Amino acid sequence: MVVLNKIYTRTGDKGDTALGNGDRVAKHSARVNAYGTSDELNAFVGVARLEAKDEMDAALARIQNDLFDLGADLCRPEMDKDADADYPPLRIADAQVSRLETEIDAMNAELSPLRSFVLPGGAALSAHLHVCRTVARRAERLATDLATQEDINPAAVTYLNRLSDWFFVASRAANDNGARDVLWVPGANR
């Protein structure tokens, strides 16, 4: 368990930070960008939860916890010295991806098929979930960029891909199961 007795340490004042294995890297490194964006996404999920009720709030709470798991996964490089660690590194598991897929399928079963792209909007919760969707996509892009440079847990990338889909379907569910979706009208303002 993490214990934080002192919040500032001054160890990052010159632009570097410690990873989960103790290695120090630049704060602008691909790895820090990837897990930092998952942390940013977690903050946006917290904002969305201000509008969420009951089952949606519970699902978003699970996602927030998963996003901390994701951050722990991404901040710890996959290395042979993991075997020497005091505790096994936390990694995103396939079961977390499967849970998202099950939830997507359940929400999507209540929605009418789309005939156009959806613009972010409608209910406040829907708009917040669209912000979460786009930040999840950015986190995914950064994680896939990291994967071209270093080995990472493939389930982490899959989780982010599925999570952005989850946010899209949840945004429609939050719009009275699609009844309040704002649809794109191509060329409407020419």
From TrEMBL:
Record-level Gene Ontology MF annotations: ATP binding; corrinoid adenosyltransferase activity
Domain Cobalamin adenosyltransferase-like: 7-173
Keywords, in A-Z order: ATP-binding, Cobalamin biosynthesis, Cytoplasm, Nucleotide-binding, Transferase
Catalyzed reaction equations: 2 cob(II)alamin + reduced [electron-transfer flavoprotein] + 2 ATP = 2 adenosylcob(III)alamin + 2 triphosphate + oxidized [electron-transfer flavoprotein] + 3 H(+); 2 cob(II)yrinate a,c diamide + reduced [electron-transfer flavoprotein] + 2 ATP = 2 adenosylcob(III)yrinate a,c-diamide + 2 triphosphate + oxidized [electron-transfer flavoprotein] + 3 H(+)
Domain of life of the organism encoding this protein: Bacteria
Signal peptide: none
Any one of the GO CC terms: cytoplasm
Biological process annotations from GO: cobalamin biosynthetic process
Pfam families per the UniProt record, alphabetical: Cob_adeno_trans
Cell compartments where the protein resides: Cytoplasm
Main localisation: cytoplasm
Pathway: Cofactor biosynthesis; adenosylcobalamin biosynthesis; adenosylcobalamin from cob(II)yrinate a,c-diamide: step 2/7
InterPro entries: CblAdoTrfase-like, CblAdoTrfase-like_sf, PduO-typ
EC number: 2.5.1.17
Similarity remark: Belongs to the Cob(I)alamin adenosyltransferase family.
Protein name: Corrinoid adenosyltransferase
Organism, as annotated: Phaeobacter gallaeciensis
